[in-house]
Amino acid sequence: MHALPSGTCELIFLNQPLAMKGLKEFYIHGHSKKPVIMYSGLEDKVHILNFSKTETKPWKKIYLGAMFYTILIPQDSSLLVKTFETYNLPRCTFGNDPFCSFIDTPYFGNPNTYKYEQKQIGFYIILCNPVIFTIQNFDVSKNGRLWFEANNNVTIDITAVGQKEIFDHTNLSIYFYEYDLGHIGARIYVTNAS
What we know:
CATH superfamily of the largest domain: Spermadhesin, CUB domain
Shape: globular
Helix content: under 10%
Order of helices and strands: EEEEEEEEEEEEEEE
Distance between the termini: 34 Å
Strand order of the largest sheet: 1-6-3-4
Number of helices: 0
CATH class of the largest domain: Mainly Beta
CATH topology of the largest domain: Jelly Rolls
Largest sheet: 4 strands, antiparallel
């Protein structure tokens, strides 16, 4: 995708939750000092991240759960985005190199209009290094549930914004269900612990 010198380019990324896609890496090229900006949603946009060619934060392996994402590309810049299927992951999902990522529950950011059944939210993670999971947004009813489940039979409920959990050398799944209408789900920020 390329924005001309005359203006910003708006890229709308459509997603079909439950068969979720991921963004593997971003590459930006151009002369603009302005960052690329990413939002979830179309009209009631929720800011996710900014990045530029001088950005030091390495955004990688982002798990997209919302239906729509909007990416604003500054003028005279181009953007290359590599995607992946969340069910087709490498042996070590997150390696030693520094990274930042996030995971959205299905339909994140849009108040749900139907009830979700108990579902694994699109991925299974193999951790070879310590990784921190921080709850950034959380809107799940008292009748809904979001939780981590590790291969050593550890189950940890996610209950509030700011909750942090560290997992290391384990197989990890995240499960989510919501029976009440009108809730937007959760966004989990992920980064390496070292």
